């Protein structure tokens, strides 16, 4: 078992402001969990607390059912893959991968076998004699992964490991890391600010803001049923439109919609950009900007005074105006004051 449990976890640097504010989270054995949020939300700090690189202010961290608050980092059986790769520049690829095993005084023959097995799985066989300066960014990242994998740790911690790579290589390495997780069957805790990485890689996503968990759920649940406006706006491309629901109806740009039962007064209606061309109500808008992104267009415009966007097919008719098609069934409704979602029964 390689579960990780955070109980009432708090981290403060000044004794007043909590960078991590009473977080409770259970990460299951063999789970691939992604911590996502904007800069400063505390996601990297959580990794450093789990690894022991920083001390917690209060609370408990359990690994494999054991409290590790006072356990030295090297004794927690955790591998950390950093954003900067953190390779030893004077060592070869072979020596970098082997370093942790040498420090633990593994037999030379076993070190050689393990290093070559890992190198083969990461397509590094022909690079073992090279120094990090002779490698591309993707090759360096694979070496960093290899150095972590070779130790066969209980838990992998990854702090934005792909952020220094170009777009195409990021896609390739995302698949590589998922493949490794499936092969190793070990607990992965992965930090990113990239919502695409979060949605495509995680068994569960933990959305953080200001040191607090806003929602922890599967990618499908996070995307389709965001708990509040922060989650809705952070994951995916969401439009927020303030509306006044009265007598069972509300208007958007003069077009009347039937308000679901339980939706009344001033609320914020939200609809994803890709849902703006497939509904039953037509709204005519004047595009501010139209972008072509390859297989689709993104139209930017205003609705009820809010800046919005729609993702539409390339052949979607757009000129001085665009006819958008939206439905209430594709909308979420949020309390304007608290930002929390308003629950209601959606019609199919």
What does this structure look like?
The structure is a single chain. With 348 residues, this protein is α+β, with helices and mostly antiparallel strands. It has 8 helices and 20 strands. The chain has helices at 43-51, 93-103, 108-121, 137-149, 167-184, 195-201, 219-224, 229-234; strands spanning 4-12, 18-27, 32-36, 58-63, 66-67, 78-81, 155-159, 187-192, 204-209, 212-217, 238-245, 249-252, 255-258, 265-272, 281-285, 289-292, 296-303, 306-313, 322-326, 332-335. The strands form 6 sheets. Strands 6-7-8-3-9-10 form a 6-stranded mixed β-sheet, with helices on both faces. Helix 5 links the parallel strand 7 and strand 8 (187-192). Helix 2 crosses helix 3 (108-121) and helix 2 runs parallel beside helix 4. The longest helix has 18 residues, at 167-184. The mean pLDDT is 92.
Total count of strands: 20
Helicity, in percent?
10-25%
Number of helices, counting only DSSP H or I runs of 4 residues or more: 8
The rounded distance between the terminal residues' Cα atoms is 42 Å
Rounded mean pLDDT score? 92
Bin the strand percentage: 25-35%
Shape: globular
Q: In angstroms, what is the radius of gyration?
A: 24 Å
By helix and strand content, what is the structural category?
A: alpha+beta
Largest β-sheet summary: 6 strands, mixed
Strand order of the largest sheet: 6-7-8-3-9-10
The helix/strand series, from N terminus to C terminus, equals EEEHEEEHHHEHEHEEHHEEEEEEEEEE
Low-confidence stretches: none
